[in-house]
Design brief:
The protein is α/β, with parallel strands linked by helices. 49% of the residues lie in helices and 12% in strands. The chain has 16 helices and nine strands. Strand 8 and strand 9 form a beta hairpin. It binds guanosine-5'-diphosphate. The site of guanosine-5'-diphosphate has 12 residues, from helix 6.
């Protein structure tokens, strides 16, 4: 269903703003060059002496005696993760024409949508929501980032948009399911993580707050993905209108019980400047954004912006919009947190639900098998419940098939070994068919095996 297009580039796609701004995606400004040069093994990390420190060498050695050396652990972690590289998957959703592609290109300074084919009105009437995926490899100061952009062309385009969020929700679930299967498999070493870490949801600047479709989409997805709402094409609104719209949208988000991504609270011991920045970030929701694929000249400087007869709107000017705040949040300050929340909250929810339904299925099937065995018919084939064909259920059936011959063997062994065993067996039957809690504990073991 999902049309997946992949793009890969190295040097071309290095965002120039990353270079100019001298930003650092690397989380720790460690004395890494020293470390890389001097420590080929972890043991050396415990005594990170460099030639510059020769003078103090004796003193340091004395000091080292008092240290175990675990203070270097962050450096070890840092080096290992830099070696491995990072990945991040960003989804963009919202009605077409709201500037999603333009914003993504502006954010990462690549042309991810070269091959995009725009449909005409007639074609869009029956269009279903497609999911497209683009990947770029970005490298900055030796840190590699594999960035994946997932787009949802066709969303909100049809005449009837009922449940048009469904294919987006299915896509997110499929990625969780794939990860769950990989994680439960034998080779867990090189699992490719395609889970969606953040969804930028574009809200139209032309409506009066949220539209029903926006509410439906966000409510359907807020427990699956980190939703970051953005107010699209902010240059079409005056600063006052932007302010009012943001307040209205925030109120509606609260009113409809939509759980958007929550920025983590900053620690009480952070400095005042940091706290102020954090507060500003929280108050910026939804980020008012402007996108542009062109560079224009403003006050003698070449900037990314939009040229109008009455002036220039600059994408990276914080007085004009929240583009820089959004970019900093996504790349510099909260990328890791977005990934953590995806793993610890959204994926965990999925996993728990999955395990629960697998357990229920196994209980049902076991009980059915026991009943059939009691009635003396042949051993049944695995029952296909409700016509569903999800991968997880298949996995369970496969596992059950593996377990069944052993069960069968056990049964015939019991037949051969006389009456006392038979009695035990029927007691167990009795327990299983009459005592539900007991029965529920049984398959849990099987579930663990299956995983
Ligand atoms: P998408 O369908 O959501 O991907 O939207 P596009 O990125 O293709 O943009 C649709 C149209 O809106 C194009 O003509 C863009 O030039 C224009 N556009 C994109 N971003 C902005 C913006 O921030 N402000 C204004 N005024 N127009 C924009």
């Amino acid at each position: 269903m999902a049309a997946i297009s992949e793009m890969s580039s190295d040097t071309e796609s290095i965002p120039f703003w990353l270079e100019i701004a001298e930003c650092s995606v690397a989380p720790v400004a460690m004395e890494d060059s020293d470390h890389e040069a001097h420590s080929s093994s972890d043991e050396q990390d415990c005594c990170p002496a460099t030639p510059d420190h020769n003078r103090d060498h004796a003193g340091e050695q004395d000091q080292d005696k008092e240290y175990v050396g675990f203070a270097t652990l962050p450096n070890q972690v840092h080096r290992k993760s830099v070696k491995k590289g990072f990945d991040f998957t960003l989804m963009v959703a919202g009605e077409s024409g709201l500037g999603k592609s333009t914003l993504v290109n502006s954010l990462f300074l690549t042309d991810l949508y070269k091959d995009r084919k725009l449909l005409n009105a007639e074609e869009r009437i029956t269009q279903t929501v497609e999911i497209t995926k683009h990947t770029v490899d970005i490298e900055e100061k030796g840190v590699k980032l594999k960035l994946t952009i997932v787009d949802t062309p066709g969303f909100g385009d049809a005449v009837n948009n009922t449940e048009c969020w469904k294919s987006v929700a299915d896509y997110i679930d499929q990625q969780f399911e794939q990860y769950f299967r990989d994680e439960s498999g034998l080779n867990r070493k090189n699992i490719q993580d395609n889970r969606v870490h953040c969804c930028l949801y574009f809200i139209s600047p032309f409506g009066h707050g949220l539209r029903p479709l926006d509410v439906e989409f966000m409510k359907a997805l807020h427990e699956k993905v980190n939703i970051v709402p953005v107010l699209a094409k902010a240059d079409t609104l005056t600063p006052n209108e932007v302010k009012k719209k943001k307040i209205k949208i925030r109120e509606e988000i609260e009113q409809y019980g939509i759980k958007i991504y929550q920025f983590p609270d900053c620690d009480s011991d952070e400095d005042e400047e940091f706290k102020q920045q954090d507060l500003e970030l929280k108050e910026s929701i939804p980020f008012a954004v402007i996108g542009s694929n062109t560079v224009v000249e403003a006050k003698g400087k070449r900037v990314r912006g939009r040229l109008y007869p009455w002036g220039i709107v600059e994408v990276e000017n914080s007085a004009h919009c929240d583009f820089v705040k959004l970019r900093n949040m996504l790349v510099r300050s909260h990328m890791q947190d977005l990934k953590d929340v995806t793993r610890e909250t959204h994926y965990e929810n999925y996993r728990a639900q999955c395990i629960q339904s697998m357990t229920r299925m196994v209980v049902k099937e076991r009980n059915r098998n026991k009943l059939t065995r009691e009635s003396g018919t042949d051993f049944p084939l695995p029952a296909v419940t409700g016509g569903t064909d999800s991968e997880t259920e298949k996995l369970i059936r496969e596992k059950d098939d593996e377990v069944r011959p052993a069960d069968h063997e056990l049964e015939s062994h019991q037949h051969q070994h006389g009456h006392s065993d038979q009695c035990d067996h029927s007691t167990e039957h009795h327990k299983l068919s009459h005592s539900q809690p007991e029965a529920e504990t049984q398959p849990r073991v099987i579930k663990d095996e299956a995983l």
